[in-house]
Write a structure and sequence with these properties.
Oligomer: single chain
Strand order of the largest sheet: 5-6-7-8-10-9
Largest sheet: 6 strands, mixed
Structural class: alpha/beta
Order of helices and strands: EEHEHEHEEHEHEEEEHEE
Radius of gyration: 17 Å
Strand content: 15-25%
Number of helices: 6
Number of domains: 1
Distance between the termini: 25 Å
Shape: globular
Amino acid sequence: MKLLILGDIVGSSGRKVLKENLKKIIDEKNIDFTIVNGENSADDGRGITNLIAQEFFEIGVDVITSGNHIYDKKETTDFIEKEIRLLRPNNFIEGSPGKGYGVFQSKNKRFKIGVINLMGNVFMKKTEDLFDAAKKLQEKIKLKENVDFIVVDLHGEITSEKNAMAHYFDGKATAVVGTHTHIPTADTRVLEKGTAFQTDIGMCGDYNSVIGMDKKNSILKFLKDKNAKAHFPSEGQASLSGIIVEGDNVTGLAKSVKRFLFGGELKY
């Protein structure tokens, strides 16, 4: 079982590199299931529209996770209730539109994959307690009891929170990935009890930027220049950034994990 997990899709450049390459990557890498974080995929880098979500599904994405920007487009609060393949963080305030986890089938219909979306408590918008939510989810979704594989996307600001969550899920999930900070970290590995982990899997966007946003405008904002505008995505050639996890079909844990970088400034 091979899982492709990609970080935050940022603006039109991120969508373009995904649209032009994903099907080929899935075929060449023999990918069975694909997850992307789509919360920055709108043209202005804030939120996701129904049209964008459907375009992602049409090119081979199986599940879209998200984070603090999920409701930035008003229409999302309506269609997220109907589109079970688009997730919002599970520890959002009770009653928030949409679902924070789901169980999905692999492309060959052979395996059930549980996908969990969580958001950090530190330096993020107000949410329910992260670790309490994780504990409850571990009781609901159990590896090799009601699903074959489990992937956790923790959308968070700080590395320690992501590291702690990965160890908390170690042996209970196939993979835990960090999203939100848009910069891929160099700690890709399989943890002691068999869970693949990377503190942040980066973004799918133009890296000639400030975390995907136009660099000149971002500098003006830091300088508090009166000519600075609201942040907007950089539109240069984008890179795809994420990981490929090979899951063990017997245990549901990770056999291996590799960083995946494609195109743009991060290609190698």
